[in-house]
Amino acid sequence: MTRGLDRRRLLLSGAGLATAAALGGCDRLAGTAFGRRTLQLGEDANLFVQRLLLTPASLAREFPASAISPDFRPNGTIAPQDTDYLSLAGQAFSGFALTLDGLVEAPQRLSLDALRAMPSRTQITRHDCVEGWSSIGQWTGVPLADLLKKARMRPEARYVVFHCFDTMEFAGGGLEGGDAAGEAPQGRPIRYYESIDLVDAFHPQTILAYAMNGQALPVAHGAPLRLRVERQLGYKQAKYIRRVEVVDGLGHLGEGKGGYWEDRGYEWYAGI
Ligand SMILES: Nc1nc2c(c(=O)[nH]1)N[C@H]1C(S)=C(S)[C@@H](COP(=O)(O)O)O[C@H]1N2
Ligand SMILES: [Mo]
Q1: Ligand 1 nearest atom to the CA of residue 241, by list position
Q2: Residues 31, 67: one domain?
Q3: 166 in helix, strand or coil?
Q4: Where is the Oxidoreductase molybdopterin-binding domain (predicted)?
Q5: CATH number (domain holding residue 158)
Q6: Which helix (H) or strand (E) covers residue 236, if one does?
Q7: Ligand 1 centre from 232 Cα, in Å?
Q8: pTM for the whole thing?
Q9: Ligand with an atom nearest the CA of residue 69
Q10: Could you give the C-alpha distances from 248 to 162, 198, 204, 245, in angstroms and in order?
Q11: Which of 84, 109, 154, 158 has the greatest number of beta carbons closer than 10 A?
Q12: 63-75 per-position pLDDT tens digit
């Protein structure tokens, strides 16, 4: 199950682990008896962190195909009206490219075809919304870990942010967006966004899904690409993803709480 996980980064993501520094690669230290012992301890700790993160208990439950909900409930935005989104949707997202940037060595622009050509994961999981309903669906997509490895995260990386197409509201009520015909002036659009830490980002069930129940992801459920981060609640499952940004902190985004709903009082860690 450790499939391709970058051990050192995984360890670094286990924030605060004292041994992480020892694995930072000090060759001189490694040459001493102390260093050898420390590195050995580091290896053990590394194994421990992996086991902790990747034991079956840390996986969200997966269901048989017979459990798939016949009508998975759509929620939140179900039809984005943003012009950039509508023009991509009008051509079946053939012009879509996911941006992956921020604290990475090799920023990426990936078309849907490029994403579909990567190794995929399919999982049948239960989606729990804070509003008190659940639905079970099958999701197919690219493990986020694979994308992050492709882009090669920098050591300062701490969180992964998902920027979405859909505008939830307009901030401020400034003059932008008004027109001469007397339409009400609108402020800066506030688009949906979400974030997760590196433990969830590298979790084997964390995928950017482009298919649902064996079909292309429907618009109501987040076409062309949505996040599945299976150990957390519905609002973390960002739909309509246009950009994935690797950051070292969340303070500079939105109201600084790490997500559209978090900025409005929801918990950032929405564990189930
Ligand atoms: N971009 C975007 N992502 C979103 C939302 C949204 O409004 N916009 N709503 C969230 C909430 S509260 C839930 S419960 C799920 C709903 O996903 P579904 O429409 O596939 O059921 O999407 C989440 N992701
Ligand atoms: Mo939700």
Answers
A1: 1
A2: no
A3: strand
A4: 95-248
A5: 3.90.420.10
A6: none
A7: 12
A8: 0.81
A9: 1
A10: 14, 11, 22, 10
A11: 158
A12: 999 999 999 999 9
